[in-house]
Design brief:
The chain is an all-alpha fold. The protein has 18 helices and no strands. α9 packs antiparallel against α15 and α14 packs across α17. About 5% of the residues are buried.
Length: about 425
């Protein structure tokens, strides 16, 4: 029996080393398949090691036609276990466990953090911030910076202007500088700062239009829209101050602001007439002394006054008659001949006053003076046309006046007067 066991074991060993009829059915296939499987596993291990993401090792290693046969050796079974171990390790990798949505949210967080950092002023213009900023961010930031620069410039201009005004007022407080043109202008502007010119003119219009006699005028509609405190006294003071200037003496528009005594004092013609009367009275008083009788210089003072005054009165009456005609009643030259002539419309008076005030250098740049200065060219053209018409009318009037004077001087009682002799001569 022992010999039979030895022979049996030897036969088994021989069968293991040299496969029997079962192994001889496909002797070259098993070793070839195992070698191919090992090479594929090694290559896939390298791919898994360097970051392969979603490939299935089973699908890569063993294809259906390459599955191990039932006759595979223990080494082939070891390879299968090794493959399972690789699959478990791959399943434990973080790249396989973390979903792709979480990675996308992380990328968005990174972009948002970079954009937030690049929106700060000290980083917004860096080259590496272009990847984080949106297309309209830089344009919006540029507009915002431009607005901030403009606002800062305006604030600086206002602060500088206020500081300059304060320094100028402080310097002009010195009595030795009060007569300087810059100090007079700064003082007047400081006084007028709280009451703009256009507002004062509107207040004047409201005050004048509050008179029942002007309530129905179309030009008063815009002034009566709002109720304001009466400013007639302020306007009268302003008109009185302006009309006291010798350059405006004798203007018809100043008659309503100046009393009769002051109007006569500022009128050059009235002053000359008063001075001539005083000289004539003093000359007559001196020439009445007996020892000056027969003096040639006293003849002009002692002779009775000629009839020139009556001729002048008749000439004025003739002028009134001519100016009452419809085509001549609007001439400015007729204002001195027509008594109780219609006064200038209220709106024209206000526009004239505003235009006159805005012609002063320190008011020309004010926005409220724009509507008054824009009409300057229109007024100039109209004035030239009226001046031509007035010149033509004056020439015709002078001819008619000379003819009337000849007619008056042809009367016997006026032929010896000095005025008629000079006229007829």
């Amino acid at each position: 029996p022992r010999e039979e066991e030895a022979v049996g074991s030897a036969s088994c060993l021989t069968d293991a080393q040299q496969p029997g009829p079962v192994a001889s059915e496909d002797p070259p296939t098993a070793p070839t398949t195992i070698q191919q499987s090992s090479s594929i596993v090694v290559s896939n291990v390298e791919r898994v090691r360097w970051g392969s993401k979603s490939e299935d090792v089973l699908k890569l290693n063993l294809k259906p036609q390459e599955a191990p046969s039932s006759n595979a050796t223990a080494w082939a079974h070891g390879l299968e276990e090794l493959q399972k171990d690789f699959e478990q390790r791959m399943a434990a990798l973080p790249s396989r466990s973390a979903p792709w949505g979480a990675q996308g949210s992380l990328l968005r967080e990174i972009m948002d953090a970079g954009r937030e950092l690049c929106l700060e002023p000290q980083r917004r213009w860096r080259a590496d911030c272009r990847n984080f900023l949106r297309p309209g961010d830089q344009q919006r930031m540029l507009r915002q910076e431009l607005q901030e620069v403009r606002a800062a410039g305006q604030r600086w201009d206002l602060a500088f202007s206020d500081a300059a005004d304060d320094v100028l007022l402080e310097l002009c407080a010195d009595p030795s500088r009060q007569d300087l043109p810059a100090c007079r202008r700064s003082t007047s502007e400081a006084e007028q700062e709280h009451t703009p010119l256009l507002e004062r003119i509107r207040d004047l219009g409201r005050e004048l239009c509050s008179d029942p006699r002007r309530a129905g005028r179309a030009s008063c509609a815009e002034f009566l829209a709002e109720e304001q405190l009466p400013l007639l006294e302020q306007i009268n003071e302003l008109g009185h101050e302006l009309c006291m200037d010798p350059r405006r003496a004798g203007r018809p528009s100043c008659a309503q602001f100046l009393p009769k005594e002051e109007a006569k004092a500022t009128d050059p013609g009235a002053w000359e007439k008063s001075f001539s009367d005083k000289v004539a009275a003093y000359g007559r008083e001196l020439c009445l002394d007996p020892w000056r009788e027969g003096d040639e210089a006293c003849k002009q003072f002692l002779e009775p006054p000629p009839q020139e005054h009556s001729v002048a009165e008749e000439a004025l009456a003739f002028g009134r008659e001519l100016c009452l005609e419809p085509e001549r009643k609007d001439y400015d030259a007729c204002a001195q001949f027509i008594e109780g002539h219609e006064e200038k419309p209220l709106l024209d008076k206000i526009m004239d006053l505003g235009h006159e005030l805005c012609l002063e250098p320190h008011r020309r740049s004010r926005p409220s003076c724009t509507p008054f200065l824009d009409r300057e060219a229109e007024f100039q053209g109209r004035f030239e046309q009226l001046r031509k018409e007035e010149r033509a009318w004056d020439e015709a009037f002078a001819e008619q006046l000379v003819a009337a004077s000849h007619e008056l001087c042809s009367q016997p009682e006026r032929q010896g007067s000095d005025a008629c002799e000079g006229l007829l001569g």
